[in-house]
Amino acid sequence: MSELCAMEVDSRHQGAESEYMRDFWIPLNNTVEAFLHPSSQTSPISFQETFTLVYKCVGEGYSDRLHCDLMHAVNKYLKNLHVELLNCLTVAVADNARQFSLQDQGIIQMIHKFDSALADYIKAVKGISATFSYLGKYFAQKKNYKTLEDELTLMFCIEIAEHFIHDILSCVERSPPFTLEPALLSRLFHNLQIVSRDLYGTLYSKLFARFVADALPRMHEADLNSHIAEVHELQAQMRRELDQSKASFAESSSVRNPAHKRSADECN
Known about the structure:
Elements: H1 2-36, H2 47-59, H3 63-90, H4 102-131, H5 133-142, H6 148-174, H7 182-195, H8 199-203, H9 205-209, H10 224-256, H11 258-267
Helix pairs in contact: 1-2, 1-3, 1-4, 2-5, 3-4, 3-6, 4-6, 4-7, 10-11
Protein name: CDK2-associated and cullin domain-containing protein 1
Family: Belongs to the cullin family.
Pfam families: Cullin
């Protein structure tokens, strides 16, 4: 008798699992994948259908399972992204700029990849948070939980940003001007502020202040003189770096075109 009861319970469990996967998670997972991989061929269901499925799924008692599967899907995406960013640092890149080593070129390539992935991830998080809003509301009300958007952005910091932030900031600090496009840097630092909830801006305030408005605390009159001195020092540093870049470029040009150098000397 006990064996029959156990078999019946197991059968019900398998049936519930099959129902959850078929009716809820598979179509919802397609939507999550479409947000995380906007260029993929995955066909997501509509916002209304997604919201309805999430509502029914929570109502059927699958809220914890749905939340767990959602976090797992996003975490899997971030781990794959982590590997891709690491590959940028290890793959040899042609040394087109004499002042940079191969490692520096790899970091710059990684920064471009990081910037693009971060911008796409922020868009994906907004979409996921909106379509899964009922799940987020359930956890916020019933379990005193943080919002889905907060949880997903924190996940990016833990899985991605914390592993690459020091390489990124170090490269930005020591690179000559315009090594990285100003628009890219502005977008990158702004988005880092978003996912870290201003934490990185607080920890690295001086560097962030170069690209993000209001990264530094509000200035008082007593701070003006020191601020002016910092601006002058920054301008002087940029001029020195620009002069070094010009000298390096002139030297490399003379090495590549010795005939041009001789003709220039003859004219003189």
